[in-house]
Specification:
heterodimer, B: alpha+beta, CRO Repressor, four-stranded antiparallel β-sheet
């Protein structure tokens, strides 16, 4: 039993550690679909439906705050901050009702989201 | 982002990863500390520090780098065991610095050691005259091994034809009041013998014993918690506290 534990504990530790520090890529998908909210923001901004765009942005912010707490152990801080900044810029664009700034920001977000955790 | 929490998690992972990896690398790292081992150790430490504290970098990348260093280190150790040639390539060979009391200047130049440094090495081994040296070798780990000229070597028991007994190790039998039965059996000694020895020294409770061991001459050494010493050996020259 002692020999078993001597090997089992370190192996389990390594497996759990690697799971914690590599979990970002799949844990980001485990909550509500943040990508869908941002796609909606982009679509509503193109239609100039600012009320809906604002609602989607607020949802996206809440969902991202939840996801950030889970992925922070496996994802570089810069990437987490970059997504927060991107969502904030979208909020600013919605307040100014400026679709020209929201669409490029949405594409920036798609790139950040795709590479998050990889 | 909760930076303190992330640092706690990453530092904990790093701590146990380096603990585990150090055990896997083994004792060779310390016992045979060549320049490569030294730089390798520093690099591993540096990667581990980044893994624990650099939140702007992916933890996995650093864990992977640590693991690569571990695997390569173990691979080099295994290669060294299997191939004598590659072992020499890794660690180099000892270099003779002095022979029959003479300094070998070419070899000193080759390993870039000055005569002053060589003399320091001799003096730290209590050799104050180069005449006393039969051979001095620079080992791959940077230390200098010295063989004394036979005129200056210590007299051994066998030189004097003095009979000698087989040397044994000191075996701990009681630590902090706890009996180590495995060690008692190893020295073929029973519990009653130990109690008898303690009673003869006026000790009636195992809990009073801080450390007890059977010495190479089969006698019992006992240290109690209560040392009953005065202040005679206090070398402090300032009242303190400091």
């Amino acid at each position: 039993m002692r020999t078993f534990l001597l090997y089992a504990i370190p192996i389990t530790f390594i497996i759990v550690s690697v799971a914690v520090i590599t979990s970002g890529s799949w844990i980001k998908e485990s909550d509500e679909d943040l990508l869908l909210y941002v796609q909606n923001i982009e679509a509503y901004a193109k239609e100039e439906n600012w009320e809906e765009a604002e609602r989607e942005q607020a949802h996206a912010k809440v969902v991202w705050d939840r996801i950030a707490k889970r992925v922070q152990f496996s994802v570089p801080r810069n990437d987490v901050l970059a997504i927060s900044e991107s969502l904030s810029r979208m909020k600013g664009g919605i307040e100014q009702e400026d679709a020209d700034s929201i669409v490029p920001e949405a594409y920036h977000f798609y790139e950040l989201w795709e590479t998050l955790g990889w | 982002m909760q930076e303190p929490l992330v640092v706690i998690v990453r530092a904990t992972i790093t701590f146990f990863v380096i603990f585990l990896y150090a055990r896997l690398i083994g004792k060779q790292q310390i016992g045979n500390f060549t320049m490569f081992d030294y730089i390798n150790g520093i690099t591993i430490g540096s990667i581990a520090a980044t893994l624990a504290t650099d939140l702007n970098m992916s933890a996995f990348i650093h864990w992977l780098a640590l693991t690569v260093f571990l695997v390569l280190t173990i691979l080099l150790q295994l290669v060294g065991l299997k191939s004598r040639l590659l072992s020499k390539v890794q660690d180099a060979e000892p270099v003779v610095l002095m022979e029959k009391g003479k300094i070998l200047e070419k070899n000193l130049q080759k390993v870039r050691i000055t005569k002053d440094e060589l003399m320091v090495q001799l003096r730290t081994k209590n050799i104050f005259s180069p005449d006393e040296v039969e051979a001095a070798l620079l080992e791959p780990d940077g230390s200098v091994s010295i063989l004394l000229h036979s005129d200056y070597q210590y007299v051994q028991k066998k030189d004097l034809n003095v009979s000698s007994q087989r040397t044994k190790l000191t075996t701990e039998v009681l630590i902090e009041g706890e009996l180590i039965e495995q060690n008692l059996r190893q020295r073929n000694i029973d519990y009653e013998w130990l109690l008898g020895q303690l009673k003869a020294k006026g000790i009636h409770r195992l809990e009073d014993v801080s450390y007890a061991a059977i010495l190479p001459n089969d006698t019992l050494y006992v240290d109690l918690y209560d040392d009953q010493l005065d202040d005679e050996m206090n070398i402090s020259d300032y009242p303190g506290p400091y």
